[in-house]
Amino acid sequence: MAFQKESGIFKGMNARLTVISTAIILAALVYGAFYTEILSDNLSAARDFLNPFLEWYYVILVAFLLFFMVWLGIGHYKDVRLGHDDERPEFSFVSWVAMLFAAGMGVGIIFWSVAQPVLQFHDNPFVEEGGTPEAAIAALRLTFFHWGLNGWAIFAFVGLVLAYFSFRRDLPLTIRSALYPILGERIRGVSGDVVDTLAVFGTVFGIVTTLGLGVQQLNSGLGAVFDLEATLFLQLVITACIMGIAAVTVVSGLNRGVRWMSELNLWLSVAAMAFLMLWGPTNHLIAMTVEAAGYYAQNLLVMNLYTHAALEDGWQAEWTVFYWGWWLAWAPFVGMFIARISRGRTFSEFIMGVLLVPTVVTMVWMGLFGGSALYQELFGSGGIIDAVEEDVAVALFAMLQGLDLGLVGIAASIGMLLLIATFLITSANAGTLVVNTILSGGDPEPPRIHRVFWAVVLALLTAILLAAGGLEVLQSAVIMGALPFSLVVVAMTAGLLRALEDEKCAHRRGKRTETPREPWADLDDAGIKPVRAVPEKIRDSCRTKGKKPEYWRSNQ
Mind giving me the DSSP string for 329-357? Predict the structure, then answer.
């Protein structure tokens, strides 16, 4: 790769980008370690100052990305392929869907699958009175909204842009490549480094937030199952153990340790959902999930543009702003993973798959876990809301204890502890690989020493944010980390639209052929019409421009 050093400590890496990104993150580490209380106060103050702006800015940006992705999936460019015209998908549909499922599940969905529905059951701007059956459906609907199509539109957008410029335009698999139509060769210089630095910054704080939430939940689960006191020291020990295992597995590479952990996650997740289907209030869970999904689909536009403008109680900042910031911070990480497994798919295949498959899986998960908690609050012994208000991280285990299944319930709690641990390890693995992929200029197998280094950095930063104040500080950190990258997302939109202007000249066949044709050709060599014929006016324009735009050439 043109970005990489060929020798020395930065061999295989973009030295300038690595130094800049490392210096910024290490400065945050040192500042947090010696000025922990000041860090907490500063993050809270910055969040309070920016909330009035973010309450509408994030709403507009995320709503736009959803509508933009739907337009790309069904509109004029739906047949554009993430690769060259004669390529077909690298993975079968079943394998691709399975990997999307793995990408869609994370420790965040375990942390909030019970806590969010229960909290919004009693505090919901869309119902007049909390704690009612109507409030339960509204709480589940809001949970679907925060974990559904909008969030996955962010991931789909970043994944599609990365795949498009890497596989179709032959540029490195990094964020800066999306700005080639705007910056040209300047992406190889300081301008490109700034873009990738913002991506690294957002990704690091997104991962650290997720790790912090997972460690808190694992700590609370150990207390619920084994009566271990929830302390900062225990959280730091858990962080060290998780990141130690992650460092070992990430060194083994994507096809060994990381893949094995991902497959373990998949089967444990299936077992968790099967457990609630068998031992939970099955009929009620299915009915509640279906009803909430219907209300979610019916009110999607209203929720997309809801800004809480008539109220000033902080609900919008606490929930929607936090979630959209979290999704944005994770977008480089998940988007790059999705891009790497989606080569050869058309825009329509990619967008429909990435939007719909993870959303459906997430809604089923939230319906089962959140629905079980709401059922206990409505018709059972309750008590979950009291436990959540005392410690939000204990919500999942309070719900499992409320099922009152004796040894089966204890076994289920132990299984969930294992699932949380594997999700933490997988998140740390993938995050470490993605940060190093960006810093190495798109190399999917970055040097091992740098993988270990960034695993240690993520562990230290997680520990510092946990010491600085727990959940509130984690939420503030991810919102602040996502804001700079949101500006990159806007620029990526402009870059993609600029690049797509030339796709009207691209010839997209219905069958694979060995001999490429001119972009304005009506028939291929076998006499088969392309998927979408190019109008005569555009054919003339393409002949004038030449065969390919300047930046279709290989830039490796």
Answer: HHHHHHHHHHHHT-TT-BHHHHHHHHHHH
